[in-house]
Structures are given as C-alpha cells and as structure tokens.
Amino acid sequence: MAKKINVPDAVVRVEKSGNRFNAWDTDGVKRTSEITTGARRKAFEGDYLLGRFTNKAGKFYWRRWDGEVASPVDNTSSVDVPTDHAEVLSFIHGSYSLKPQGLMMSELKWKYLIRSAVRGKNIMMTGPAGCGKTMAAKSVVNSLDRPDFYFNLGATQDPRGTLIGNTHFESSKGTYFSESLFVKAIQTPDAVILLDELSRAHPDAWNILMTVLDYGQRYLRLDESDGQATIKVAENVTFVATANIGNEYTSTRVMDKALMDRFTIVEMDVLSEDDENELLTYMFPNVDSTVLGNVAKIASLTRTESNSETARINSGISTRTTVELCGLLYDGFNLVEAAEVSIYPQYDATGGVDSERTFVKQIVQKFCDDGSSDDLFNEDEMAEAEGSMS
Ligand SMILES: Nc1ncnc2c1ncn2[C@@H]1O[C@H](COP(=O)(O)OP(=O)(O)OP(=O)(O)O)[C@@H](O)[C@H]1O
Ligand SMILES: [Mg+2]
Fold first, then answer.
1. For the chain, percent of residues with pLDDT exceeding 70
2. Cα separation, 188 vs 168, whole angstroms
3. Cβ distance 194 to 137 under 8 Å?
4. Has this prediction a pTM greater than 0.90?
C-alpha cells in the first residue's frame, strides 16, 4: 500500500439524531453504514473522532483518532446537522439497501414499511400465509438501530400472562405479581416491538392491546383486581404486528375493527412468477434453473386460479411452500416426489377427481410428464384436462 499506515484517510464525527448515531466525514459525506453501531455510539459518548485506517492486508477499519483533522469537520457547510426532516427523508429513501437480499419485497413497500416504523406508526403486515410477513417484519426490526422485542401472540395460550404478567403465591411471600417481558418492552424508549401472528391471538390479547396501541392513550392497564395502576408506553415505541389475512378479505371480518383501525396496514405482495423465480434462483443456485422456473410457474398458476371468479382452489401455493419444495429438490428429490410431500397435503382430497388436490396435481403434472417445460400451460388446456377427467 502506498498510503502511510498510521494516518487515517478519512475522519468522521458522530452525531446523534433521534436515536441513531450518524457518522459524517470532513466532506460532509455520511459514512454511518461503514462503521459499527457500537463504535459510533462510543465515539459519540466519548466525544472523539473516528479515523479510517488501512491494515496490512489492505483492508479498511475504523478506530479512535485523536490527531489533526485537515479540514475541521465543524466548518464544512454540508456537514451541518440536517434538520430532522431531511434526516428522516434520506434515511427512508436510502433504506432499500438495508433490505436483506433474500427478502423479496418491492422498493415502494419496503420504504413504506421503514417510513411507518421511523414515524412511530403501529404497523400491521397483512397477506396470505407464507408470503413473507414475519420475515419482512423481522427485517425491518433488524434494520433499525433500536432495541427490539419479539412476541408470538399466535402461540400463546395465556395472553394475560404474556402481555401483563402473572400473580404468584408463595407461603413465605404471600401473593405477588411478576411483570411480563412485554411490560418491560413497552417501557423501553425507542423499542420496536414485534407482535407476530396477532390475527391468531386470543381475543383477550386484542382487548389488552387496545389501549396500548391507541395513539391517544398508550398505556397498559394491569389487572384491576390487583389494584395496579396503568403503565405508560415509553417515548417513540413502534409496534409491528403481522396478520395472516388473505388480501381479498376485509380484515375486519377476522379481527376486531377497532383494533385494526389502530394500525397502518402494509400489505405484503404475493410474488409474481418472475419474482418467485428470482428468489428461488437466488436461494438455490445449484438446482436446475428450468426446474426452478417450473416451480415458479406452478405456484403462480395456482395463485391466479385461487383468485379467479371460478376458483377451483381456495389458496395458491405459498412462497414458504415453494422454498421448502426447492429445498427438497436441492436434497435430491425430484419434482414429483417433492410436490407429493410438500404441496398435496395442503389441498383437500375429498371429492376425488373434483377435489382441490386433483386440480393441483394436474397443474404439477404438466411440468413433470417428460421434464419439458415447453408445453406451456394455459387455461383452455386446463379446462380440457379437466373435462377429460370427469
Ligand atoms: N417475500 C418473500 N421473500 C423471501 N422469502 C419469502 C418470502 N415470502 C416467503 N418467503 C419464504 O417463506 C418462509 C416463510 O415466510 P414468513 O414466515 O415470513 O411468512 P408469513 O407471511 O409470516 O406466514 P404466516 O402467515 O404463516 O405467518 C420464509 O422463511 C422464506 O423462506
Ligand atoms: Mg408469520
């Protein structure tokens, strides 16, 4: 390396903006993403600068720099602390790079999700089963430099215990109350709280959450019989919930309207054939691309069918299922076998040749017969196939 080893080639000052620690170099360029959160936080708290150095292997790294700064950070006009709004704007619009590559989601939806989170909205991810709601919610939580908490409300049989806490009795102590993790979570400023599978939660959970989620109330009521007060939700806490609600249904049919009204809805898109193919290709680079293409086609055909007016099946094959199926292909199962174990069990077999399962099998078989993907499936062919079967 030609560079002098012990002089940094860039120097940043860390500023706190909201709850983020941003690093700006002497040219006013934001370098936040190059430096770990911990290093930025320490530099801010210790009020020192960070310099970028080059190690022997030619790699860059950042560490404390107490030396001189060629052009003082403070005098560079473009380094002026951005107004909060400018900061938020640049964060939102630069946020697509934070989306993990393995998550398929349009740029607009992702930015809307980030924006809602940054703006402290209660977010509800909706969409049919296995379309990436939980994955997207977790990804947004990971993208924000904030304390996060995860609660699976679909899995809990005891909403009161999970959300509020439990009253215990011990002969030595008498009756005492132990708070839930949720109580701690809502008292943590800037927390991002994931409420997974809220739509499957016990109605008691919905009732408890009603005041917590209400922008005008924002408190948790502890059990009245305990004579307990209420607990306030801390500043800047964001809730991200997921609901397994088919896009075609109005959510109010499934969940209480008053509760739904407290959320900003982010509807996950069901992937198009191209996006599905891209995802599978990204995840399974070693599986034959023609077969992956066929899997994407099969899934897409079932999705189109399930949305049609004369639908023969209730739901299309989910992305969760195509990913599982391709995992089987990767492990040496062929498409017929993989479909047999991962797809068919999801479709009702009653009704024989008129059953959902038969219908899906026909679609799959189109792509299995001779391994050729050339005979493209179309609606007429399908109708014909059906006619000949019944
Ligand atoms: N949009 C997507 N991008 C990438 N992977 C996806 C996507 N949707 C689904 N998957 C795959 O499917 C799996 C299940 O996704 P996820 O758990 O996020 O679905 P969900 O919508 O939360 O489903 P449920 O309604 O059953 O809770 C993921 O682990 C991932 O492998
Ligand atoms: Mg989920």
1. 85
2. 25
3. yes
4. no
CA distances (Å), origin 104, targets 110, 234, 308: 10, 33, 24
Ligand 1 is surrounded, with C-beta below 6 A, by 102-105, 127, 129-135, 197, 242, 244, 271, 279, 319-320, 323
Say which residues have a Cβ less than 8 Å from residue 390's Cβ, sequence separation at least 6. Answer: 353, 354
At 330-362, the pLDDT tens digits run 999 999 999 999 999 999 999 888 999 999 999
The DSSP secondary structure of 203-269, one letter per residue, reads: HHHHHHHHHHH-TTT-EEEPPGGGT--EEEPPTT-EEEEEEEB-TTS-GGGTS-HHHHTTSEEEEPP
Contact 266, 113 (CB under 8 A): yes
The best mutation among 99, 107, 134, 195 to test binding of ligand 1, ranked by most ligand atoms within 8 Å of the C-beta, falls on: 134
Q: How far apart are CA 248 and CA 99, in angstroms?
A: 26
Phi, psi of 328 (to 5 degrees): -70, -40
Longest dimension (CA), the chain: 84
- Alpha-carbon span 21 to 15, nearest angstrom: 6
